[in-house]
Structure formats: C-alpha cells, structure tokens
Amino acid sequence: MTPPDVAVTDVADPLAEAAPTMELLLRELDRRWPPEAERLHRISRYALLPAGKLLRPLLLMESAEAVGGGGPAVVPAALSVEYLHVGSLVHDDVIDGDAMRRGRPSVVARYGTADAIVTGDALMLGMFGVLTDGAEEAGGLPPGRVLAAVRVFARAGVDLCRGQAMEGELRGDLGCGLDRYLTMSSLKTGALFRAACRGGAILGGGTPAQQHALTAYAEHLGLAFQMHDDLLPYTSDPRTTGKSALSDIVAARPTFPVLLCHAMAGARGRARLEAALGGALPAADALRTVHELLETTGALDAARDQATAQAGRATSCLAELPRSRATAVLAAVADLSVSRDR
Amino acid sequence: MTPPDVAVTDVADPLAEAAPTMELLLRELDRRWPPEAERLHRISRYALLPAGKLLRPLLLMESAEAVGGGGPAVVPAALSVEYLHVGSLVHDDVIDGDAMRRGRPSVVARYGTADAIVTGDALMLGMFGVLTDGAEEAGGLPPGRVLAAVRVFARAGVDLCRGQAMEGELRGDLGCGLDRYLTMSSLKTGALFRAACRGGAILGGGTPAQQHALTAYAEHLGLAFQMHDDLLPYTSDPRTTGKSALSDIVAARPTFPVLLCHAMAGARGRARLEAALGGALPAADALRTVHELLETTGALDAARDQATAQAGRATSCLAELPRSRATAVLAAVADLSVSRDR
After folding, report:
1. Which of A270-284, B137-151, B170-184, B268-282 has the lowest mean pLDDT?
2. % residues pLDDT > 70 (chain B)
3. Are A68 and A208 in contact (CB under 8 A)?
4. Domain limits of chain A?
5. How many A-B residue pairs are in contact by the CB < 8 A criterion?
6. Confidence band, pLDDT 50/70/90 cuts, at residue B109
7. A121–B120 C-beta distance less than 8 A
8. Which one of A43, A88, A117 makes the best mutation probe of the B interface by having the most chain B beta carbons within 10 Å?
9. DSSP bridge partners of A256
10. Which of A129, A130, A169 comes nearest B39 by C-beta?
C-alpha cells in the first residue's frame, strides 16, 4: 500500500525519520526506570523494558508535531500512554493466563497473580502523574491542555476496559457478527490509538479540525492494527511474534479472519470451524484446522484486504494536515500496521 | 477520646452535621450509576452501591470546606476518590480470594476474576475523568488546582499499590517489625486518606500550611483507622463487619495487634502465635488461639491505646485550621475511626 502523495514528504524511508523520536523515548524510559530495590518498581521495569514497539508513544509524539507542537514537552505524555498500554497488557495476561509476552515470561508467569494485578494498577494510576509532569517540566504545557489530555486518557482507559469486558462476552461466540467485533476492536485497541493521537493533537495545540483528523486516522489505524494482529497466528512465526500462536484458539476468541470464515464457509466448513474453536480438538490440531479453513474459504485473503483498506483510510485522513516529516511518519505507521510480522 | 476544644464547635453531634454532605454524595453516586445494560457499568454499580462508609469522599468534602472552598464544585473529586478506593478493594478481593465484602458476595465471587480485574481497572482509570469534570461542571474549579489534584491522586494510587505489594511481601512474616508495618499501613491505607484531605485542601484553595495540616491529620487518621481495622476480627461480629473474621488469619497477615503480641509475648506464647498463623491449625481454631494470646499478653489493649493515640494526634492537627462545622466533623471522624464496629 502506498500512502497518498498528499501526506508524504520526499524522504526515502519515512519510518527511519522516526528514529530520533524513538531514541528519545527509549532513553527517557530507561532513565525513569532505573534498576531499583523496591519490588513494585522492579516488576514495573520488567514489564516496561526492554520496550515493545512504542507505537502509541510514537503516535502521540508525531501527532503533536503534525500540528506544530511536538518535542520534549510531550515526552511525559507519550510515556504515560505506554504505561497505560503495558499496564493493561499485564492484566490481560492474568485474565487470559498467557505465559509469554514479547518473547519472555509474562509478568503473571514470572511474579504471580497478586503482583501482576498490583503492577498493572500502579502503571495505570502512575500514568496520570507522569502526564501532569508535562505541565511543569520540559517546556511547561498550559494546564488547560494537560487537563484535556487527562480527560482523553481517562475516557480511553475506560473504553479499553469496556472492550476487554466485551471481548469476554464474545468469547466462544462465532455467531456474534462482524459489527460487534468491530465495536469491541474499536474499544479494546482503537481507544488507546485514538487517545494517543488526539492527546498529541491537544497537547501540541492543534485546532479542533486537526484533532478530529488525527482521531479519525487513529480509529482506522486501530482497526487495521487489530485485524492484522488477528492474522499473525496464521501468517507469522511464534518466535517472531513472541507469543503462542495458540492463544486465540485456546481462549476461543472470535477473531477477524475467523468471523469472516464463519460468514464465508458453507455449512460443513462452519461446523468444522465451530468444532475446532469449541475445544473438540487439541489446540495445535485446532490451529491447523482453522488455518486450513481460513485458506480454503478465502477468509485469510479477505481479512488481509480489509486490514489494508483500513490502513489506507487512516492515511487518507492525514490529508487534512499540513505535509510534514510527522505526517510521513504517521503514514508509514499505517503502512507498517498491516505489513509487520509481530 | 474527646477532641481538643480548639477544633470543636458547639454542636451536640458533630457527625450528624455531616448528614447533608453524605446525602449529597449518595444522591450523586446513585444518579451517576443508573441501572444499565452494559456489563461493565452494571458490575461497577454493583461494586459501588449500596455505598460503603464513603469516608474518603467525606474527608475530601470537609477538607475543602475547612479551608473555605467546599460544596458542589468538589463533589466530582470526592466521588473519584471513592472510585479509586472501591477499584482497589475489588482487586484486593481477587488477590486475597475474599468471597465477601460489605456483607454480600465480593465482585470476584459474583462475576469472576476477569470481570473483577477489568472493573477495578475501569473504576481506577475513570476516576481521573470524573475528577476533571470538576474543572467545568458545578462552579468550575481553576484548571491548575484540578491538575494538582490529579497529581496528588495519581501519586496516592501508586503509593496504594506499593503498600499492597509490601503487604504481600510481609505475609507470614511475624518478625517483620512494627516499622515495616507502619510503612505498609501508611502506603496502603494512609495514601488515600492523605490524598482525600490534601486533594480537598487544594481544590478548596487552601494555603500550603492548611494543606500540610490536613495531610498530617490524614496521616494519623489513616494509621488509627488501619490499627482499629486490624482489631475488628477480635472485637466485632462478622455479621456487623460484613467480612469474615478469618480473612487476616487465612492470609497470614502480620496485623497490628499480632505484631504487638509477637513483641510482648514470651518464647512460648510467640511459638503458639507463629504456629497459629503458620497454618498449623484450622482457621477457626487459629483465630481463637490468636485472640486468647492477644488478651493474655495485653496486646489487644495496647493496640487499642495506640490507635486511640493516633486518632488524638489526628485531631490535634486540626488546630491549625479555623474552627468550623467542617473541622468538627473531621474531629468526629477521627473519633469514629477508633470506635466503629465495622
């Protein structure tokens, strides 16, 4: 997928342009979480570092810059989104019983349920403290903007929880329909993408129209990202993704390709799909069966196409903003969201 | 314990003076959490209503008024403290496996671990949204004050988590010493008391000296409250407290009277105490043994005396503030903290 011209600058590799931002984020993260004796701090550090993709902090930084207000002043806000994201992953792994995360033992597997719950809480609560740091440190953002960002992140956090609760309700329900899947994804995954971009636009002093454009970009990006994420167990190696390909099967999640397959398959294929996800087979056999059905029905290709279409729509939204290095990076992120292998 | 004159007005029953505040809080809580279809909302309502003692919201409201700035403008902030408190209780019950809370099934017992974790998260994250409402609604507090309150609550939330992690570390450790117990209590229980009072003082426009006085009041109140809480399994009926008297024993918590007993008992008593809390006896027998040791060593009386002393110190801190209905209520709360039976 090529991002439309309007949002792209003439740099050879737009994502490489994000390197200084990523280095700044990594340096700050490491500085703020030194190895330390207190248990909760150590577990938090384990959860945060080595860092993941830092996609949400990057979105916040680049969104702020896209409206003319990035730089060190928004770094605390960018990190705070990562804390919220990582805190929710720590709790996700408790809920799903996932033992692996980013290629190593998850927090719950390594430290147990009690510490995993408390660490997730501390990251989620602490983020609001870090966010308010932005009002004083590093340039001093206007308090009204920071307060608006607090509001955006609090609402996003609640939406994320609503999405997680909804994911629990949909578990095992292959007949839930694509609409409910899209609502769930928009809450569970989209919420933080939207908050990162909208928060960045607010902190960067963007106009309401710019805030709106970046929020719309994030909404489509979130869907593209989740749709592609759902494809990874069938398209990427667990050693690359860092988590078991069986997780979705074991949790009986109605993921995007599975729901498309359910809609596209005949009665016999649907029955096989339901049996595989209903726990009738050992997990590895179930994964093979589902994979085969996704291929034969064309659901895998259809899911890929729709993810790519969402990424394209995300990029189109950037046309509302002045062309810049930042919008090129944001377009490259949309591209990456459907081409990554982890 | 009689509060010192300086903080008391001439009303017959200072706590009765808090009735309009409590009614306002209850009305607002009920209005904001109507019965509703969405699962997460319903579970949140179950966790919040019928309401508990609403002690922390009351502290915030009265602290704001004590510095001349209470009323409807601080109601959102007052409720937000309750959301944080209840969210952490919901997670506590997951961690401890407690099936009862406020005399009925805990959230985890009724809805399961996944929904309990997500509901606790939503309450903790949502609190910051509610808190920022105060900047617009109901009188419109200055954004700088609300932002300062956000910072105070975020830090308190992290301290609360640090206290919970520390409680986990101290589990089963009767030799941990009173200092570590006091640090743990100051974090786990004191953090929200301090945040409620300091937050109220900030939002109410108090001077730094007034903020300091109310924070010191809250610190002593928190210790008094926790010390007295630790006594309840030995002094109050589970039908009154609403939770099992065995909880502390089963979790092998080094509570305040137990630690005093450990320090005051002879070698034989200490060995019996360690056996009882080490899982050597059925829980009900262990409770009886511990209770007997607390009586014979005088630890129960000593714990009661120290709790009362802390409550007295809390009240003394109020002397820094102008005498008012609010300071009388705060003094009465200190009194209540060590006389309540639940």
Report:
1. B137-151
2. 95
3. no
4. 5-337
5. 149
6. very high
7. yes
8. A117
9. none
10. A169
